[in-house]
Design brief:
Length: about 220
């Protein structure tokens, strides 16, 4: 157990969080950068309170912009003529409100990533984003598996946002851990990624990069 465990747990307990129990039996497959393998009805997109961890226009760019999005309600049906959301028109950020911070206690938790449409027109999102964790030097990449959850396409109006969650399996052990530094997010059907910082520098994950059913995985957008 690491020496700073007591201090970290005390710090975490000051935060109100929404913990989610991992479903170990969930059928997971390799992360794909498109949303064409399942889907259904459309639904609306809204806006969440967030503090951006930073975003970039490609997988090689780094984030750093700080601030918060205004809370708003909006969105509409994903009409047939609406184009998909392009990487360059999106901004990604970890949600960091009182009820959004994961606490690595009592098993797995979830973290929310918000995708905001910073373009001038509505665009459509649906499916699983590609999510890759990278280490500090970029040499150790972890492409997250995806859950078996169903998804539906949604239309995100200009200035509005939607979100997806990551299930995370934290550890405080000195061995068998993976310490992310960056998170690269590739929107469905896109090839360029948004790059944001891993916001929990002192918290590492159980290294399950080769596991068939890892406890760290990505859920669909919306």
């Amino acid at each position: 157990m690491r020496s700073d465990t007591t201090a970290r747990i005390a710090r975490r307990r000051t935060l109100r969080v929404a913990a989610a129990v991992l479903t170990a039996a969930a059928a997971l497959t390799l992360t794909a950068c498109n949303g064409s393998d399942s889907g259904g009805d459309t639904k609306s997109a809204g806006q969440a309170d967030t503090a951006p961890a930073g975003s970039g226009g490609s997988s090689g760019s780094s984030g750093g912009a700080q601030g918060s999005y205004a809370k708003a309600e909006g969105g509409g049906r994903a009409h047939a003529g609406v184009e998909r959301c392009r990487t360059e028109n999106l901004e990604a950020a970890f949600a960091t409100g009182e009820d959004a911070l994961p606490v690595p206690e009592d098993g797995g938790t979830t973290a929310t990533i918000v995708l905001m449409n910073k373009g001038n027109y509505s665009c459509k999102l649906g499916g699983f984003p590609g999510v890759d964790l990278t280490s500090i030097n970029g040499g150790e990449r972890w492409s997250l598996a995806r859950s078996s959850q169903k998804w539906s396409s949604l239309e995100v109006e200009a200035g509005q946002s939607t979100e997806f969650t990551l299930n995370l399996a934290f550890t405080e052990e000195e061995e068998g851990f993976y310490q992310p530094a960056w998170v690269e997010i590739t929107p469905p059907d896109e090839t360029k990624a948004l790059k944001i910082e891993w916001p929990w520098e002192s918290d590492s994950l159980v290294d399950q990069r080769s596991a068939t059913h890892p406890g760290t995985f990505v859920n669909p957008i919306g």
